[in-house]
Design brief:
The longest helix is centred in the last third of the chain and has 30 residues. With about 575 residues, this protein is α+β, with helices and mostly antiparallel strands. The protein is about 55% helix and about 10% strand. A hairpin with a 4-residue loop joins β3 and β4.
């Protein structure tokens, strides 16, 4: 059987969305795939297991193209005459009654028994695809013919540990399965370590060696666990109230769009009102009083309970992802259970219309972050009979940040977390266990170590935070406006770079200064939040150190994703906008 013909010019016309047979990277095997993007003579394809790859014209051929053999020589991949074996496109009569036979019998029967290898299987898969198309089989029949052989090929690769291992390693992030194990242990250990290293006794890095391991009673408290569960239930109940607009997210792999109700700002306002009533005389008069100092006293209990609940949620959504019809995330479907559990196997796990990832991304964690800050302010007043200007600043800065995030909730639908990443332990713990108990470190530090800033320092911190917020908001606003209507009057004067998908890359304005100006604004605000704690200890600066590493890593992930998606257009964008986050520096 001849190899796929590409004509005299060696090129074949393909269209985005077309079904093809594509070469699996690192091997000689072809699998059914869908063309996602075409740029620079290269094709980005999506395989049926949701893995993506970029191949050249030689690594792709049309699944529905007629071919015929022109060679007189024979090989294990070439089609035999009908008198010697069945056509690989013709279903066997015994297939429906003998499952064992259907999963073990090769599509082609060679004259002599020869050792089976993944390469020979790949050639037979390729032959089956071409022969099935030459007989004008339906797509369903074609998939049925290939299903058995693909299953056996996957098994062979799993046993030999060759092509699949190479491909998985190429797609792994966070240093692969070993790295994510360390992260799943290291993230909760970091939350615990920050509490033990920075508390009312000490916050000096020199005293880290003196840390004592906490007892079980220091870590676990049933009441705290129930409080966190009640908090999540309360936020979920508010989120189900039919208030706010309904918008649609990006187009998914199956061509559909998910609907999202934007009522996060409403949820935040309700929580703020309830908190205000419960912490003032109004609540006392109606018999509703919140014990704000209890949060400080049970801080570690609440952190550990939140971590446990996020683990339970991650286990639940991972098991839930194996149901029929689940749309899997391209990066969380490697077949390695540990890695997929951490990254997130399913893209948008939902219970009915309730989207778990969208719910956790902004609401319970971010709102808890702000309310815990105000509990720390109350505790500082209780202990010292006053509230320091540094405490006021950090609570104000972070309140504005969260308020803006929930007011602009629609913008999150275009972020990497929603569009690309699955929902697993990484996001579940990050949203519920990390944000509320790492981002409140500065406020908790100021409870035990009040810092009274001079007027000039207050002015500088106000300026730096306002500058960071302005960059963050204006850059994101320009991006959102461009995505909504790139042809609007406000966008006409801005330079853009066209892509093969029909969309354009914004290479002007804020996005002409650097590729991620919003990250620059984030870092300026983060530094302001830490600097309110003074310069006596380094531990309160953990946030800006960690956040810098996070954003640099996310920038690199985003650049790789855009390179795969936009190809040569993204390369031109990188030449046009060379700086990643900080203009003139990085």
């Amino acid at each position: 059987m001849a190899s796929p013909s590409r004509g005299r010019s060696g090129k074949t016309e393909y269209q985005i969305g077309e079904k093809v047979m594509a070469l699996w990277p690192g091997s000689s095997m072809y699998y059914p795939a869908t063309v996602q993007d075409i740029a620079g003579g290269k094709f980005t394809v999506l395989f049926e297991n949701n893995s993506t790859a970029t191949v050249t014209d030689k690594g792709i051929f049309k699944a529905n193209r007629r071919t015929r053999s022109r060679s007189r020589s024979r090989s294990p991949a070439r089609r035999r005459s009908r008198s010697r074996s069945r056509s690989p496109g013709r279903p066997r009569k015994q297939a429906s009654t003998s499952p064992s036979r259907s999963t073990s019998t090769p599509l082609l029967t060679p004259r002599k028994a020869r050792p089976d290898t993944p390469v020979r299987r790949s050639l037979r898969i390729k032959a089956a695809g071409e022969d099935a198309s030459s007989k004008n089989l339906s797509e369903e029949t074609f998939k049925g013919v290939l299903a058995t052989q693909v299953k056996n090929t996957s098994l062979a690769l799993e046993i030999t540990g060759k092509a699949v291992t190479l491909q998985e390693r190429a797609n792994f992030e966070f240093m692969g399965p070993t790295g994510v194990v360390f992260m799943m242990l290291g993230l909760p250990a970091t939350v615990l370590g920050l509490y033990l290293a920075c508390n009312k006794q000490t916050c000096s890095i020199r005293d880290v060696s003196k840390l004592r391991l906490p007892s079980a009673s220091d870590l676990w408290d049933v009441q705290s666990f129930l409080v966190v569960m009640a908090w999540l239930a309360f936020i979920a109940g508010l989120s189900l109230i039919p208030v706010g607009r309904i918008v649609y997210g990006r187009t998914l792999q199956n061509g559909t769009k998910l609907a999202y109700r934007l009522n996060g700002f409403f949820v935040f306002i309700v929580c703020a009102v309830v908190f205000a009533v419960g912490s003032t005389r109004v609540g006392l008069q109606i018999g509703f009083q919140l014990p704000l100092d209890w949060v400080y006293d049970h801080y570690l209990h609440l952190a550990m309970a939140s971590g446990l609940i996020s683990l339970m949620m991650a286990v639940g959504v991972y098991l839930y992802s194996f149901r029929d019809g689940a749309i899997l995330a391209s990066g969380g479907n490697t077949g390695n259970h540990v890695y997929d559990f951490f990254v997130g196997r399913e893209l948008n796990p939902r219970v009915g219309q309730f989207d778990l990832k969208f719910f956790c991304e902004l609401r319970p964690g971010l709102i808890a972050w702000v309310l815990i800050n105000f509990c720390m302010m109350y505790k500082q007043f209780e202990l010292h009979d006053q509230v320091s200007n540094s405490m006021i600043l950090v609570c104000l800065f972070q309140f504005i940040y969260v308020l803006d995030g929930l007011y602009s909730e629609e913008a999150i639908l275009s972020t990497m977390d929603i569009v690309h990443d699955g929902f697993g332990f990484m996001l579940a713990y990050g949203d519920l266990g990390w944000v509320p108990f790492v981002y409140t470190l500065q406020a908790r530090y100021l409870v035990d170590t009040p810092v009274h800033l001079p007027g000039w320092a207050v002015a500088l911190l106000l300026l730096s935070n306002m500058l960071g917020f302005a960059i963050f908001r204006l850059a994101n606003g320009q991006k959102d406006q461009f995505r909504a209507n790139p042809h609007s009057a406000n966008m006409q004067h801005l330079r853009t770079i066209p892509t093969s998908s029909g969309k354009a890359l914004l290479a002007d304005g804020w996005w002409g200064m650097c590729r991620h100006p919003n990250y620059l604004g984030d870092l300026l605000m983060g530094f302001s939040w830490c600097a309110v704690c003074g310069i006596q200890h380094i531990i309160p600066y953990f946030y800006i150190i960690y956040f810098t590493i996070l954003l640099v890593h996310r920038q690199r992930r985003d650049d790789i994703h855009c390179q795969r998606k936009y190809g040569s257009a993204w390369e031109e964008y990188e030449r046009t906008v060379p700086y990643r986050i900080v203009p003139g520096i990085y």
